[in-house]
Structure formats: structure tokens, C-alpha cells
Amino acid sequence: MAEILSHIKLNMDESLLKRLCDYQETLWLNPDYGTSLASASDVSSDVSQETVFRANRLLERFAPYLETVFPETQVSNGIIESPIQEMQNIKEYLSIPGHVLIKRDDLMPVSGSIKSRGGIYEVLVFAEKLAAKNGFNPNTDDYRDLAQERFKKIFGQWKIEVASTGNLGLSVGLMASTLGFQARVHMSHDATEWKINKLRQNGVQVVIYNDNFSNAVTMARAASKKDDHSYFVDDEASKILFAGYATAGERVKQQIADLGIEVSKEKPLVVYLPAGVGGSPSGVAFGLKIQFGDSVMPIFVEPTHMPSVLLGMASGLNHDISVYDIGIDGKTAADGLAVGRPSLIAGKYMQNKLFGIATVSDEHMFAFQGMLKKLENIEAEPSAVVGIQGLLASQKIKAIPSEATHMIWSTGGSMVPRETMNQYEKNALKYFAHWRV
Ligand SMILES: *Cc1c(COP(=O)(O)O)cnc(C)c1O
């Protein structure tokens, strides 16, 4: 506590702050949830229901192209989406009364993670604009033509850059290089080896900084600004990325209906989303709110050593504070969540839409990874499984009815190399063997 930087004035509950600093698992309930905000209009004017609707239509226009370049999307006719499954064994094991579902973004095509939603969308928005300036008519032309050499040449004059803890780099890097763009991914010192290798094997340039993620973004943004043929996908600030994540809402609405599950205020859908900068979970939550309104209750989960969105939202400082400012060390094995400073926009969009945030220790995260493997035979990366902490915490929240449907958002995993996954699982099953509710 003594280490809190003196220039930061913190307006938050002392006992909450102490729990964060002591790396205690915590559940923060958002006092502004469901309220109408005086300031809500200044954010709702940029990403709106209309923006998200249009984002879904753009992805549909590109579906014939995506089906051509990523044959694994043929089963869904070029729509990049993941299934929702029931987890009957975990439901029984944890004695949860309502449905327990898992959203399998670990199986998302292209990046094997939730990042395929925002990253691919933003690259496609840029590509469509560039193509339209060069003779492509989005209303009448065939999007499969964009795979032709003449468009690849046009795209090749541009560089697309992104800073990423890993998965966003895979999503943006692979989409950009497939279209013919030069792709450059900037990564922090804790980037995972296999993610770096996979990018390089696909012709993506990788720059590694001997620094944390937040500083890597700042340096990458500055590098891109100097080059007038560079387009920067900004993980901390992009509303296009945010709209791409929000397209999940329409699809989930349909999938839940197809499963025959009723969602209402009495039987709400409680969704547990892992948060790093907060961009992907906020975008998804925003899209779900458009579809389900009051009947969906989003809860984020963060590592006890990286509670960046919690600190930002609970203090109201959002992007203006990082976990390092209060002396938290940021050490976690959840590389997708290893972000000390939250996004510029997530906290604002979530101010009255996020129900709460739970934090989880790395030991429990490993145990949940083991639980998923052992009970449901689902293989996910460590960051992807933390939603289970939210599920456990929800059982003590009075505002969540016993008839609620719970959905764990599994955010990544299918691109993890077999050998790495075997190591993960050996470790995870050990932790799960010692785990008790
Ligand atoms: C990026 C990522 C997240 C969190 O997304 P943010 O936009 O950084 O909040 C969660 N899980 C995985 C596997 C990720 O790669």
C-alpha cells in the first residue's frame, strides 16, 4: 500500500484496494450497473446498435472471400463463429442449478481465440475501403475477387501493424498477410514462443520489446504514425475492433434460441468473460446487451496479479491508472490477460453495463484448466478458463436467480501446439487434483 504513487488520487473503497494489493481473490459488484448515466450519450454516439448491425453485414459480405482463403470456414459458409455447448458434467460437479454453457471461442477459425472477432473485422474494414478506392464496387462485385493478384498488389503497398500479447497478433497478422498486406506485430517481453513462431512462419514481421504490454503499445503506435502507409490496429482504443467483438451478440442470440433456452429477466443469461485490456469482453458484452438488454448480466474475470479493468472501473480512472501504480507486480501465466493498464474505451462503455468483476489466482486458473480437460475434455489455454471463477462467485450473488443460465466464454486454445498443450495439461491436472470448491 505504501507503494501507491503519490500523484495518483484514488477514489475507491479502502478494503477493496487492500484486497487487490494483497492479491486476494475478490468480487467487485458494479454500483452503476443498470443505472442511466448522465454521461452515457457521449459514448453511445460512437459505437451504437447501428454500428454493430453494419459490422455484421460487412462480415457477411466478406463471407465468400473468407470461405475461399480459410477453407476451415466452409462449414459455416465463411462466417467466423464458434459453437455453444452445454457442460453437463461441470454443472453437476459444481451443483449449479441452471444451464451451464460454454462458448467455444477457443475453436474460432484463424487465430483460435476471441481475437478473430475484432482483429479480422478491423483488417477487413480497411481492406474494403482500400479496394473501393481502387475500382472495387462493394455493392455489385464479387468479394472472392479480392484474392486476385491485382488487389494483393494494392494491399501490398500498405503495412498493417498491431501490438499484442499474442492472440490479437495472430488474428490481425494472419488476416492481413492473407490479403497481401505487409503485417507487423509488436509484442511485449512476455510473448509466448509458439505465438511468435507461428506469426513468423506466416510471413508476419515480429518486433519484441523488452518491456510490458502497455509500453509496447505506446511504442508500436508511435512507430506506425511515422509511416504514412501504415495502418495501426489499436488494442487500447479502437472502436472498430470493439464493434467487431460486438458482432457476437447477434450470433449468440440465434444460438441460444436454437438450443431452446429461454432468456428473460427472471431467467437471465450470466456471461463470464476473461479481461485483459477489456476490449474484447466489453465489445462482446456490448453486443449481448443490444440483443438481450436487462436479461444478460456480463461479469469479467481477471488474474489477481493483473486486475487492470477492475482497478480502472472501481477507481473511475480507467486508462489513467495501471496496476503497477499501486505496487501490483503483474506476474501471471495468463498471457492473454497480462495487461496492466485497461483500454481507453472499455470502462466507459461498460460503466453501467457490466455487472461485476471477479479476480482469480493463477493456481485456481490452472485447476479450472484441469477441470475443463478432465470433466468436459475441452482443451483451452490458461487465460481462457478463468470464467469458471465467475461462475463460482455468482452462486453467492443474491441478484442472480437460481434459474439463470450461465455461459463461460472460453477465449482461446486451439492453436496451442500439441506439445505445449500437453505441458499445460500435466500442470493443470495436478492443480485440479488438489482443488476443492
Ligand atoms: C486477448 C485475450 C483476452 C482478453 O481480451 P482483452 O481485449 O485484452 O480484454 C482473453 N483471453 C484470451 C485468450 C485472449 O487472447
Can you put this structure into words, describing what you see?
The protein has about 425 residues and is an alpha/beta fold. It has two domains: about 1-55 and about 60-110 and about 240-435, 3-Layer(aba) Sandwich (Rossmann fold), CATH 3.40.50.1100; about 115-240, Rossmann fold. The chain has helices spanning about 15-20, 40-45, 50-70, 90-95, 115-135, 150-155, 165-180, 195-200, 215-225, 240-245, 250-260, 280-290, 310-315, 345-350, 360-375, 385-395, 420-435, and strands at about 25-30, 85, 100-105, 160-165, 180-185, 205-210, 230-235, 270-275, 295-305, 355-360, 405-410. A seven-stranded mixed sheet has the order 1-10-9-8-11-3-2, with helices on both faces. Strands 6-5-4-7 form a four-stranded parallel sheet, with helices on both faces. Helix 5 packs across helix 10 (about 240-245) and helix 15 packs across helix 17 (about 420-435). It is globular and about 60 Å long. It starts with 13 loop residues before the first helix and ends with a helix. It binds pyridoxal-5'-phosphate. Pyridoxal-5'-phosphate binds near residues 279 and 383.
